[in-house]
Amino acid sequence: MDGPERQPGWGRWQRPRPTAREQRQDVVLMVLVLVLSAGMTLLTNSMGMFVFGSAPSLAEQFAWIPALTVPLAWRRRFPLAVLAVLGVVFIAAQVRHVGDSIMPSVALFLAIYSAGAWSRHRVRARWTRVAVIVAMFVWLGIGLVAYAVSPAELPQAAGPLDPLVATVLHQVVFNLLFFLSAYFFGELAWRSARSRAELASQAEQLRASQEQNARGAIIAERVRIARDLHDVVAHHVSVMGIQASAARRVLDRDHELAGSALRTVEETARTAISELRGLLGVLRSEPDTGEDHEASPGLAQLPDLVAATRSAGLDVRYGEYGEPRPVPDSVAMTAYRVAQEALTNVVRHSGARSAELRVRFLENSLEIEVTDDGHGGSPSSGFGLIGMRERTAVHDGEFEAGPRRDGGFLVRASLPAPRHAEAAIP
What's a Gene Ontology MF term here (predicted)? Predict the structure, then answer.
């Protein structure tokens, strides 16, 4: 089988078989041609204008009509078989000198056209049509030879050409136009159907690609939301847990210290709620609605982050290096989230007494580095390091995390932020 499933590609495309509706249309066309053939036969016999000068009985001529028209009911389903049958029947009817030649020619035209437009085997379609056309011209040649041997008297002939030459030229030119038109339009219909199938396939591929892109965008957005929620909740809840634990331990001995710890818990809770409201507000808002939500945290909030981490009992040093400059909001927020998650990991997992947050404004990048003096461990599972790595990868940045040689743990994220991008920042 030479179908598309065995030999992919549009060069081996096969036209789908006709639908039930198209087959019903073929039956209607067949009936129409049959009725017209019967009418033309009656008119031809009534006028006595026979193509061959004489004709068999009217009953025999009517018997030829279904033989020349009924096969058209299957012209799209079995186009090559219909063409072969009609080609043979057409010549046989000509041999019997059937009076009407117009409707049999129409039926043959439809058969040649259908073979070109609907055959699923292109090589067979081509050679079957060529064979039928050659047979028709052979039959035409036989007729012209017979006419040349016994030319009819044409007393009205007055043109510059010899009547015999003019007759030959007329028959050859007319039949060339007839058969080549049937061949050409059949081939054109097949190519048109293939082009429509290609367009439909491309449209389907485009729709599937759009759906896949939409699913990918939804997944990416879910991951981003998960990272934001994790960063907001994990950090603030860690600070609140440590401060609540400290307040519980000193509640009976030092009311002032316990009150300070509880105030820190309260402030941290408010900050967490504020950030969550901002995040949920962004998720709920529609584009271009004009709703104003609290800006996402960036580099300006890093000192507040350091202060909040200090309140958890960790000695944190903060330093900026290089010439500070504006960076895109997305880069600034990523830098803040990386620093927030890194400090959260220090508080929760490292057992460190001190840490340092460094912000470096380099020539073409912004670098965030967090180090501590803990035992050099970090959570081996969860969203912490994964989230920081994913955030950095969104900007095509570089991320590094691991134990330091002299003890402690290192987290470093390098985010592209070239100086020439400053002008583009709103």
Answer: ATP binding
